[in-house]
Amino acid sequence: MTKLLLKLVLLFVAISYGLWKLSASTEFQLFGELIHKVDTDQKLVALTFDDGPTPHYTAGVLQLLELYQVKATFFVTGAETQRYMTQAKQIVAAGHQLGNHSWSHPRMLFMSLDEINREIESTDQQIRAAGFEGDILFRPPYGKKLVLLPWYLAQTDRTSIMWDIAPETFDEETEDPQTMAAEVLEQVQPGSIVLLHLMYKNREASRAALPIIIKGLKAKGYTMVKVSDLLAAQKQATVEQ
Ligand SMILES: [Zn+2]
């Protein structure tokens, strides 16, 4: 009996571990479209910035993007967009893309459909209020999704945007801008999506890495575009006659 119990416990642990890994996958979700990189021959890359907007760092980021004539995609939360609407509008006015990163940045793994609906729809409303007119793409908080969230996204015809390059370590003590930039420049491929967090105080290294990344990508012949433009450059499957 105890052996059976042990086996059941091990099975439970294995399944839990499997589901946890699945929930964090950047390349697979159960329903709907998930993009972590675009299949293209063109040297295009999308810089994506999660969280915010915040009053302290938005202007600096926008100035930098303007200086290098780069377009980017900001996955914002609904709550911060409502609170810092001025900054959200500035992002849109500068020609960048806003994406939906939920209202309150919860872990959405075990949420009800009602809660998921509120998190996503209310954020879309703020993004529209900021003046953004294109398709609203979605990025799950913490990159986490399992069953109901992907199902909801599929039902409402939303594309989840993940990433293939995430140079941050989330260890502020050791994070180094040069190392982060080198990682991006080493891993970049046509169609890559880069994830950075620039909007909070503790992301000093990421903000310092951004100009190095931009200059390095340009030196390698890359153009930085909004995620929607990257999606539009997706290679069409050739139809055999
Ligand atoms: Zn986030």
Automatic annotation (TrEMBL):
Q: Determine the domain of life of the protein's source.
A: Bacteria
Alphabetized InterPro entries for the sequence: Glyco_hydro/deAcase_b/a-brl (IPR011330), NODB_dom (IPR002509), Polysacc_deacetylase_ArnD (IPR050248)
Sorted alphabetically, which SUPFAM superfamilies does this protein's record hold? Glycoside hydrolase/deacetylase
Q: Which GO terms describe its molecular function?
A: hydrolase activity, acting on carbon-nitrogen (but not peptide) bonds
Q: Which GO terms describe its biological process?
A: carbohydrate metabolic process
Segments forming domain NodB homology: 43-225
Kindly give the PANTHER family that the UniProt entry links to this protein: GLYCOSYL TRANSFERASE-RELATED, POLYSACCHARIDE DEACETYLASE YHEN-RELATED
Write down what this protein is called: Polysaccharide deacetylase
Organism ancestry: Bacteria, Pseudomonadati, Pseudomonadota, Gammaproteobacteria, Chromatiales
